[in-house]
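Fold this: DM2 domain-containing protein
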Amino acid sequence: MARTAEKRGKDETKAAEKKVKSTGKSAGGARGGITAPVTPSAELAEIVCKNDLPRSEVVSKVWDYIKKNDLQDAKDRRQINADDKLEKIFGKKSASMFEMNKHLSKHLTAKKD
């Protein structure tokens, strides 16, 4: 049975922590960058959830929300027509899919260890 991205992330974190404890050295970049857990703002948590998630999972959940609520523009699928929740994140009524990550990053905080 295939593992979910969340389960895979937890397994990678456990493996990295075990390596750090056994060798005393850093985990060599494990769980960094796009896989590092981030904390969503209150506005973004209404869409994705309030738990810490990898950035890739946040983007995936936002896309699920956009598709579920049919928020892509009918004529130009690259444009996202924001509802009330997304407007809080984008700061405007419409945004392109290319600028979405820029707006999301303002609502994500890197997890402090």
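Helices lie at 5-23, 42-45, 55-68, 84-90, 100-105. The beta strands are 37-40, 53-54, 79-81, 94-96, 108-110.
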